[in-house]
Every structure is written in C-alpha cells, then in structure tokens.
Amino acid sequence: MPSPRTPTVAVVGLGYIGLPTAAVLASVGVQVTGVDVKQSTVDAVNAGELPFVEPDLGTVLAGAVSQGTLTASLDVPHADTYIVAVPTPFKEGKVPDLSYIEEATRSIAAKLTGGELVILESTSPPGATEFVAQTVMETRPDLTLEPDLPNTVYFAHCPERVLPGRIMIELRTNDRIIGSVNGDAGERARDLYQLFCEGEMLLTDARTAEMAKLTENAFRDVNIAFANELSLIADRVGVDVWELIELSNHHPRVNILQPGPGVGGHCIAVDPWFIVSSAPEESRMIRSAREINDEKPEYVLNQVVPRAQRFKQPRIAVLGLAFKPDIDDLRESPAMHIADELARRLPEGEIMAVEPHIDELPSSLTAHGNVVLTEFEAAMSAADLVLLLVDHTIFKNADPSALTSAQIFDTRGAWRSI
C-alpha cells in the first residue's frame, strides 16, 4: 500500500503565535509554509533565524528549516489546512478590528478548491470564525459550507492559550479548545493539533471557543485590577501593599495577584474589550477592570513627574519596556506608555531606557529626542530617579543599593528590601 501523503499546512502570520505554531508542526513532519507580509520576517525564517525573542524556538525553527519541512513566503500557497494567526487589535472606541483577518481570509479564498480546513487561531470576538466562513463563501460562491461535498470548506476556531516566554513548552502541553463551524471541522482540527500537542482536546462550537479565550483573559484582567486598585488604596491609607498581599495570601482560599504599572500584551490588555463590545450593557465588571488597569500608568506618572521636576535636567532610568519579564514584546506595554509620557512631559530631561532584550528603541520613543537606550549599570549610576517597570531577571537579581543612590520607584515589588 502507498504511504499516506504528508499533510500540508499554511500558517498565515508569522508573529509570536504563528511562527512557533509553524515550527512545531514542521518539527513533527508536517510540510509547512509560513506566510507573512514582511519580507524581513520571510527572509529570517528561510535562513532559520528568529525575528524575535522566544526561548527554545530558535532551535526548533532551525531544525525544521534545515530538514526542509518549513519554508516562508510572501504568497499564500495551496494547502490542506490553513491556520490564520494574524493580529486582532481594536479600533477607535475599543471596537474589534477584523481587517487583518479579512485580508488573510481573502488571500486564502483564492487558493481553495474544496476539502480544505481553515482554522482561525487569532483571538477574536464572538462570531469572527463565522465571519471568516462567510467571507470565503462570498468571495468564492462555487464553494459551500454543507458537509461532505467535494467543494466543501471546513472552518474551526482554535485559540492560542500560551504564555510568551513559555510558548514552546505550552504549545505542546496546554489543553486546546477547538470550536467547529461546520461538519467535522472540529475533529479535523483536533487530529492536526494532536500531532504535537499532549494536552486534552476540548471540542465545542466556534462561538463558545472564541468566548472561552476571551473569558480566560478577562478573568485574569479582573484579578489584576483588584491588585492594582488595592495598591492605590494601600498608598492612600499608608500600608505596604506587597506585605498586605503576602499576608492576605496566607489564607487558604485567597490568592491575590501582584500589582504593577498597568497591563500590557496582545491578550489581556485587548481581549476583554471584545467582550465589552459584544455585550456592552452586561459587561460592567469587565469594563471597570479594564479601565482600572488602563489608568494605572497615569497614577505612576503622577508619582514620578512631580519629583523629576525638582531637578533642572532630570535623568530618569526607566527599567524595562516589554509588557512582561524576560521577553522583547512591547505590544500594548504600559512601560512603553510611561516612557513615552515621561519623555513628552519632561522635554528638558533625559530618559535612559533600559531594555536588555532589544537592540534599538522603537521610533515612537526616539522621536522625542531625549530617550536613550542605556545599559543597566550605566543608567543606575547616572540616574536622579530610578523607575522599575518590568521585573526582568537582570533587575531582580541586582542589588540596587550598590548601583545607585537615586530615589527608586518600584512598581513591581522586586526590591522590597531597599
């Protein structure tokens, strides 16, 4: 008997989710084409090089490219399965922006012949996967959603549920939620993910799968908002919030998260708004949590700027720009917002940005003219004020008393002993 044909997969979008997914599929023998709109990303992947920082991804990527199971292209090929992993930001008014999904869908539609599976991995508002299916049907009226016909195209939603910095581990170990739109799309998606994922496959409908991912991140956002609001209350009544949380968490049924300068990233800072936009009258707590976390950077600025203004030309060491520790991801980062506002509000000062995971500052910061990417120890020794925004390991392991005599604003509780 002839051996079964190697399945082909096209992953559209080679960002923080798409590229690891493409690499791990290719590592188990699937023939994968990664598609991206950036020539620099395509070139990097084809050279077996990482376009961003993610532990363990580089080894898997290089291996897949060298074995010939992973290539990258600007053009969408024909494939058995398409995985859409493009951004889903929001527009003005916190309304979901599905333009990237629509563009990817239309590029896929032109390649379909019938029998393919289209999986939306991008975190999306309820109904987005149905929108993908409808867009294909409108673009290609020769195709159908009716199952078991030669010209049927199948659609599913399988949201990513991984943590930056642990993506390569969690892609293989986390349970997967798979939502089906038509026919046996869910079972088809399950069979694909089981090639590399050891977690449980949880099948449901597409809308429930979409809401499940949003619910997970909204739950975390609400809990972080509680911690952030508690930090404001503790400041007002003169209590150390870090000690307060530590003591409270000794209760067996209490697990308060840690406060910070806000919430960032492409998930928690964005996804709850998708729920709010879908059910604005019912999402009162979720909206309030999002507003509390969105307002925290301004609270930090109000603590730092007046003190900086006491100096004629203040030098501020801003420690961390990423949205979480030990990665280079700046998306929706409250630290980025705070650094940007410090530069704008203190034009006579120097903002020494310390971010060990990037080689150059984004243009939004360099445009101010008073923001300089600076080494950690150099910034600490030169600073009038030190603002710890991200608890990167290099910062947590340092002894600040040996590096600076400046006033320190620790928004992460990493240096509580000072």
Automatic annotation (TrEMBL):
Domain UDP-glucose/GDP-mannose dehydrogenase C-terminal intervals: 317-417
The family this protein is said to belong to: Belongs to the UDP-glucose/GDP-mannose dehydrogenase family.
SMART domains: UDPG_MGDP_dh_C
Organism, scientific name: Brevibacterium yomogidense
EC number(s) on file: 1.1.1.22
Gene Ontology MF: a single term: oxidoreductase activity, acting on the CH-CH group of donors, NAD or NADP as acceptor
GO biological process: polysaccharide biosynthetic process
Pfam name, any one: UDPG_MGDP_dh
Oxidoreductase keyword on record: yes
Alphabetical UniProt keywords: NAD, Oxidoreductase
Protein name: UDP-glucose dehydrogenase
Enzyme class at the top of the EC tree: oxidoreductase
